[in-house]
């Protein structure tokens, strides 16, 4: 059964991607457009991987989420509690796949457009204070992500409980929000994210992906998380 935090994250996704207003007709989830062409991240990530990852893998999570939510609404209407419980794993998996990839696409940008460059900002100061440098942070994220057994994600997050940055991993398509963290930067450790380019040498993928990180996006996520934390405390 889903944890309270995981259920909350799934419900937040549903609210954020549905029509606003009381009585509005619910919209189905869709795959977001990329802010760049498939080949912009080369040679770090090939256009072939980007097309398959975005058009096929992400699209499959979106389709699965729409089907699971439709079945859930039917189960709720029928007051079928057993059916609702049985649908929770599909909702969790597909919602996570949609949310995680939506963040991932925004976290990336080509080197010619600023990929890998972290300007002076609050996030950079926080990274240097806690980890010493961006290079040391990336090494810690890569080391922790490499310990994932099977598929999953490595995350740089903001932990509201600590009021600071943290590095975590999640299995499969579990969301960072499911364990109470605010996702800032996600590294997709599923084989479909790198295998065509790096084969079984995923360590090279983890190393190279930092060249195409969109630190402007990550920084904006950090600023928003900190502002929300301060407002709540």
Automatic annotation (TrEMBL):
It holds the Pfam family Sod_Fe_N. Residues 28-108 form the Manganese/iron superoxide dismutase N-terminal domain. Residues 122-221 form the Manganese/iron superoxide dismutase C-terminal domain. GO terms for cellular component: mitochondrion. Keywords: Antioxidant, Manganese, Metal-binding, Oxidoreductase. The keyword Iron does not apply. Its EC number is 1.15.1.1. It catalyses: 2 superoxide + 2 H(+) = H2O2 + O2. One of its GO terms (molecular function) is manganese ion binding. Mn(2+) binds at residues 53, 101, 188, 192. Its cofactor is Mn(2+). Destroys radicals which are normally produced within the cells and which are toxic to biological systems. Belongs to the iron/manganese superoxide dismutase family. This is Superoxide dismutase. It comes from Coemansia biformis. The lineage of its organism: Eukaryota, Fungi, Fungi incertae sedis, Zoopagomycota, Kickxellomycotina. The gene is SOD2.
